[in-house]
Give the backbone structure.
Amino acid sequence: MSPRFLSAGDRALVVEFGARVDRSLSGAVLRLAASLRRAPPRGIVETVPTFRSLTVYYDPLATSRAKLEEAIRDHIVREEEPRRAATLWHVPVCYEGACAPDLPEVAGRLGLAPARVVALHSGVRYHIYMLGFLPGFPYLGDMPDALALPRRADPRLSVPAGSISIALTLTAIYPYESPGGWHLIGTTPIRLFDAARAQPALFAPGDAVCFEPIAPARFAAIRAAVAAGDYEVAHETVAL
């Protein structure tokens, strides 16, 4: 795979592996990010993975674009085996009532029963391609084709924190209340971003997520435990 190198101002270099949302491209992005973390070239400040590229921020007083590109090409050439393990997060989701305001409409547009939409959505192990839009906001793929819908024609001015949303082939979780144009089919009571934590964002690109349906009473209990600081999201290390 021969990536393109694109300047993003005088402090960032974009390494672009392709032009589509694709698991293999994501794997190349994440492998390069891991390699640069293990043995960072001089001057690197931060790396930010996206669907199909890695943005490398650097200190122009410590290195140059040419030197950094050469060092990154060396990392790509000597890539090791693909990632073999990831953190799998078990995310509780209530798909009922006020927690799922768009579920009846989504089911009708797809020609499916609401219960079938829930079964399809919660029956997949999702790959976190990237974080963006809001702090800790995960873009997860890939949804079953049967759930694919375009974004809403009328975006909301306010989407509640914890909302589980779908659009196109992706699903996502809103960490904070914000505007949004995706379809809301559930809500999780967990907290995705906390600046007081050593690692503020709960998820990382390359992690995996499973959604686990819960009843409203369980949702309320978990939300109370989260507010009290007495809840930890279940997770484990799994083979990819």
Summary: The helical segments are 23-38, 65-77, 103-110, 114-122, 216-227. The two ends are 21 Å apart (CA to CA). Residues 146 and 205 are 25 Å apart (CA to CA). The chain has a mean pLDDT of 94.
